[in-house]
Amino acid sequence: MRYPTLVTVAMLVACSNPPAPPADVSTLDAVVTDGAPSDQSSPDVAASDAIDDASPDAQDAGPSAAPCDPIGPTRCGLPFPNDYWTRLDPSTPTRIRLDFNSEMLPRSTPRWFNEYDGFSPASSPMAHLPGAVATGLVDPRNMARSLEPSSLTAIIDTMTGQRVAHFAEIDVTATDPAQRALILRPAQNLVFGRRYVVAIRGVRDSAGAVIAPSPAFRAMRDDLATAELSLAQRERYTRIFSDLQRASVPRAELQLAWDFTVASRQSIQSRLVSMRDQALAAVGTEGAAYRITNVRMNPRAGIYAHIEGQVTVPLFMDDPEPGGRLNVAPDGTIRQNGTAQYSFWMVVPNSAMTAPAGVLAYGHGLLSSGVDVFSDRAIGDLANGTNLIVFAMDLQGMANEDGAVILQALSGPDLGRFRVLIERQHQGIINWLVMMRTMTGRMRSEPALQIGGRSAIDPTRRFYYGASQGGIFGGTYMALTTDVERGVLMVPGQAYNLLLQRSSNFRRFEDILRPRFPNGLDIPRLLETIQLHWDRTEPSGWTPNIRTDRVAGTPAHEVLMLVAIGDRQVTTLGAHMMARSIGGVPNLAPVNREIFGLESRMGMHTGSAMIEFDFALPEPLDNTPPTGTPDPHSRIGESAPVFMMAPEWLATGATQNRCDGPCNPG
């Protein structure tokens, strides 16, 4: 299989006003039950989306209080995420709203972010302890240690008082050791609307000395007088220290502690759920109008036809072309804006000549195109072997035609422009959903798909298959789809703030960003901030709702995850995070290694599962990509057991490890 390279971008994060401590909001999260538009966005925020991006500094009056948290004096914006940069807002499910400002976001428009009512559920809390080294930190191999009282780092769920499993690392990609962030990586999604406290103690420098806390934090910890700390900040920390005491984290040893609140489910999901419900209601059970533009018969062995066409879908953008924005109404809801035509590509296997074929949606690689389905011989063989008609569309916002907008976001004056790509991804996901409805509706009567006096389509068999980017965003599709219950996710992962620095393809984009953000602390902070936007479309905002706590109107979904150890483009740590976030996903045995939080299970298994393939290439423990060759990212699709397990699982919903022992093609 061919997977185009993984690519990304980031943007600057910073500070804003310190609020009074918000109430614990985990029980207030607004569950999306009916696809209704979110009421979280005020007309002010909706209007800000329409502001000309070219003059961000003119759009915010600046903070009313100190823009930087004094507990992190070495780089404003750290520690992050941090409720210091929120304000009270009783209208949101969490009762707070982010409050960034243009002074601390010199290359981004603050209002790109301030509509959110909390931080990412995929947050990787980070801080700067000057000179810190990884000695004594919990690494990815032993995350169970992070739950022990001896762990140097702790993330506390303030609702339960329990520790959150994670690993901790020093950002070795920063060339100056004095500018390296300490980053905590949770094992799975944090809970929507929940408040967390982060605590760090006993971290040492290269000489083995325990690093001293900042003067402001020491004053806070030891209750010393200082002009740096406001009354509101001290009141907030009374609560933080109480939470830590309940979790048996010794206050006297703390080097740093802070809290942050995760955005509500409504804040993250309501837009896309509303768009889905509007779109499917508009096209009905038969799907959308379409037209066939080209049919190529017998393009290669095993394939009956390659078909191209265009489908007319409900449009939710102000412009269907790259650079378009979501059509936001004055009340903050997303409204349909007519229709638009988007291309699709279809592979009809020879097997459909003898019996009606099911339908498989295909997710392409990043900055590529759905037309790749024609050249992907493996997917053609899968189609013929399982009697499935495969269709593909471009994922708008992450397709080859979006490259110019990505470069514009990287090189222009406002890195907030990257949000334009993510808004466009909303439309791309809607197009996938509408096309599946069309394939099993109107397309059954398509003359080009009439074989022997009957339709080539069996509308009762509907599946998803995505690889690389298609495997990643397949997590979102599988949470949202009302028509598909099983999907194969090849080399998937989440979240981008974890994946990117571990991807070999990020370096060239990092080379563009480094001169603009030369301080080594900025790049991980950029990735953490852009994650706030990405949650609305990438699986970090959706995977907990694939199997359980489902989005309203969807059936239960199951996924088969096929993972390559040593993958240079999508780290297996991202796949593990995805599997734990989905919940109940076992690692099918015999296994190459035990994975924290995932049960190893022998024999035939029904439902979601993960299988790792070991190509005998090492994986680094730090935040750099593997270097082994050839890259397992594409080799996994050539493994013979995949051609046994994927069809078996799609057909029956059950499979087992079909390798001769652990899957290790070498």
Structure explained in plain terms:
This protein has 14 helices and 23 strands. It has 666 residues and is an alpha/beta fold. It folds into three domains: 59-263, no CATH class; 265-463, no CATH class; 468-495 and 535-666, no CATH class. It has a nine-stranded mixed sheet with strand order 9-10-11-13-12-16-17-18-22, sandwiched between helices. Strands 3-6-5 form a three-stranded antiparallel sheet, with no helix packed on it. A three-stranded antiparallel sheet has the order 4-7-8. β14 (450-451) and β15 form a beta hairpin. The longest helix has 22 residues, at 418-439. 57% of the residues are buried.
Low-pLDDT segments, ≥5 res: 1-64
Secondary structure tally, helices: 14
Strand order of the largest sheet: 9-10-11-13-12-16-17-18-22
- The percentage helix is 10-25%
What's the average pLDDT? 89
- Which structural class matches the secondary elements? alpha/beta
In the residues, how many domains can be counted? Answer: 3
Largest sheet: 9 strands, mixed
Rounded to an integer, what's the Rg over CA atoms?
A: 25 Å
Oligomer: single chain
Number of strands: 23
- Shape assignment: globular
Distance N to C terminus:
18 Å
Strand-residue fraction? 15-25%
